């Protein structure tokens, strides 16, 4: 098992069809104790219970610093260590540049970018004390190509901000054996795209992807396990594209 006795926190991990829950499941299968953090409405405790015995589900809002700090403290109090943080919580909005309001901008950036900062700040003192840890940030192909399929320009900006933040943290904390890496998923069939694309449109998009299909949540979970595990001990500051070849650069 690649993650035996490790403790992993996954934000936004309660959606059963989402990237976060698929990652939680694969990490648990690989021996990790998992803490799923999510909004109350998403029922993180219920999601954690589906992983089997010994996992934790906590209500936490990544846009709220006190909530992030409290959740990280609870995870540490429960498990006695933290090895991996997956900054996965994110929301999108399919609008064009001229339609983005200030409130839209705040909402989208607060979850992906501010949330990544606040949760990283919440776990870093523990990772420092351990002199080890892996932070994995879920960005998007949208950051690299100026729009994925569904997110607006503020979403691309938020996800590009995540790339910059993660690289800077990788540089800052590398000497303390804390690795920080990003994953840039392509188009993955989760609730975030549910009802927004017809089957014909999905087939059309698949034709433009070298691996000829949309991504599955499990495709991202595998990349997260790699970045959490000892298989990636010399990787930091990297951007791991998991997009079926949608963007080759
Ligand atoms: N699905 C895709 O095609 C795709 C592509 C690239 C990147 N991503 C990114 O992957 C991540 C996961 O997305 P998904 O597709 O699984 O969607 P999803 O909607 O299933 O998951 C997002 C989760 O984040 C949670 N969340 C929202 N606001 C939160 C907050 N303030 N605090 C804590 N949790 C919060 C939601 O409750 C939900 O469980 C997101 O960051 C998304 O931007 C998705």
TrEMBL record:
Superkingdom of this protein's organism: Bacteria
GO molecular function, a single term: oxidoreductase activity, acting on the CH-OH group of donors, NAD or NADP as acceptor
Protein name: NAD(P)-dependent dehydrogenase (Short-subunit alcohol dehydrogenase family)
Coiled coil: none
Database matches in InterPro entries: KR_dom, NAD(P)-bd_dom_sf, Sc_DH/Rdtase_CS, SDR_fam
SUPFAM superfamilies noted in UniProt: NAD(P)-binding Rossmann-fold domains
Annotated source species: Acidovorax delafieldii
Source taxonomy: Bacteria, Pseudomonadati, Pseudomonadota, Betaproteobacteria, Burkholderiales
SMART domains according to UniProt: PKS_KR (SM00822)
Similarity remark: Belongs to the short-chain dehydrogenases/reductases (SDR) family.
Domain (Ketoreductase): residue spans on this chain: 6-186
GO BP term, example: fatty acid elongation
